[in-house]
Amino acid sequence: MKPAEELRKQPCYIVAIETSCDETSVAVVEDGTKVRSNIVSSQIETHRKFGGVVPEVASRKHVETITWIIEEALREARVSPAELSAVAVTHGPGLVGSLLVGMVAAKALATALELPLIGVHHIAGHIYANRLVGELEYPLVALVVSGGHTEIVHVQKEGRFRILGLTRDDAVGEAFDKVARALQLPYPGGPHIDRLAHEAKESITLPRAWLEPGSYDFSFSGLKSAVLAVLNQAKMKGEALDPAHVARGFQESVIDVLVEKAVRAVRETGARQLLLAGGVAANRGLRTELAGRCAEEGIPLVIPPFEYCTDNAAMIGAAAYLKYTRGQFSSFDMKAEPLLSLEEWSV
User: Fold this and answer.
1) b vs e for 137-154, b when ≥16 Cβ sit within 10 Å of the residue's Cβ?
2) Would you list the DSSP string of 326-341?
3) How far apart are CA 196 and CA 322, in angstroms?
4) What pLDDT was estimated at residue 5?
5) Which residues of 105-134 are buried (b: 16+ CB within 10 A; e: fewer)?
6) Which of 38, 104, 161, 336 is least surrounded by Cβ atoms within 10 Å, i.e. has the fewest?
7) Please, are residues 150 and 298 in contact by the beta-carbon 8 Å criterion?
8) Residue 105 and residue 156: Cα distance in Å, rounded?
9) What does the pLDDT look like over 139-160, one tens digit per residue?
10) Computed from CA positions of residues 92, 96, 101, 103, in that sequence, does the dihedral angle turn out positive or negative?
């Protein structure tokens, strides 16, 4: 294996693998910022019949697709295996079976090509997806919203993470899916609730979970229960309830809390930028409200394009570059870590 000093003198092409949940993705990223290829194979249609992700099914689908996706990513990037600088892979957090498929593939590829291996934290990937669209200015605050995570992260300097707040129960994406199920909407529920919320002319008022004064934490289980209570009361009274009105009320409640806490975190930490990251960053209502509030507050806002919001390997390649430039490579006995700490992963 070539020493880190020699590797830094060459063009850096990182092939990255992401299999933390139900997307199989491989990308080739140049110098941490330029996406040469980003192939994503979604399993949504497979899991839709179950109303959610089935871990065992997800890992089997990864096994079926990972080899040809690696080949396709290299072909589209027009980068030969001999030109690669490192192999990166998500090693946590995520579904352990899914993570293992990606890690085995990454270790095999790195071994065969005698390349360094870089384990990447999934949330670091979501945050540094923003690096693919522009320069980041530190210190910054990232609002991470996805199916499994809802966090406010303070990034004091490049690659140094400190969690200010996180969800105490359901993540935003989970709450969207559960409410969508109650409204008899298809899986995944987020896009359908977002669509209905935009179509609705009225909204049903629902509670906001602010928690303790000054807290950056989140809680959405009570809001989910409030939605179920509204639906049950209407059913008991024999009243017709417009699902769009419920969807709009639910989405407004979620967005109000997310935006207010993120903006307060920027003000109180003196951050120079606010980053939006994660699958729920594709929600039009959230993007619009956050953009409007940041414009009022004079806060520079960075939002990745839709293709870098959901799980993808390009974001893993961007985050891996932080470790690559510092020569912080992973051991080949690295294990899948479903509860990997973001703060401990810091460079």
Assistant:
1) eebbbbbbbbbbbbbbbb
2) TT-PBPTT----TT--
3) 40
4) 53
5) bbbebbeeeebbbbbbbbbbbbbbbbbbee
6) 104
7) no
8) 33
9) 999 999 988 889 999 999 999 9
10) positive
- Report the C-alpha dihedral over residues 95, 101, 107, 109, rounded to 10 degrees: -140
Per-residue confidence (pLDDT) for residue 343, from 0 to 100? 97
Residue 151 host element (H or E): strand 150-155
Task: Dig out the tokens for 133 from the structure.
Answer: 């669209």
Task: State how far the Cα of 289 lies from the Cα of 280, in Å rounded to an integer.
Answer: 13
Could you tell me the two tokens for 155?
Answer: 């990034």
Question: pLDDT tens, 169-222?
Answer: 999 999 999 999 999 999 888 999 999 999 999 999 999 999 999 999 999 999
**Whole-number Å distance between alpha carbons of 136 and 300:** 10
pLDDT one-digit tens code per residue, 55-106: 888 899 999 999 999 999 999 999 999 999 999 999 999 999 999 999 999 9
H-state helical runs in 151-220: 172-182, 189-199
Amino acid at 152: I
Q: Name 261's Cβ contacts closer than 8 Å, sequence gap at least 6.
A: 152, 165, 216, 218
Contact 140/158 with Cβ under 8 angstroms?
no
- Token output for 69: 């996706």
Nearest-Å Rg of the Cα atoms of the chain is 21
CA angle, 45 then 47 then 52, to 5°:
130
Query: Rounded CA gap, 10 and 21, in Å?
Result: 33
Respond yes or no on whether the N-terminal peptide bond of residue 207 is cis (omega within 30° of 0). no
Query: Is residue 146 a contact partner of residue 278, using CB atoms and an 8 Å limit?
Result: yes
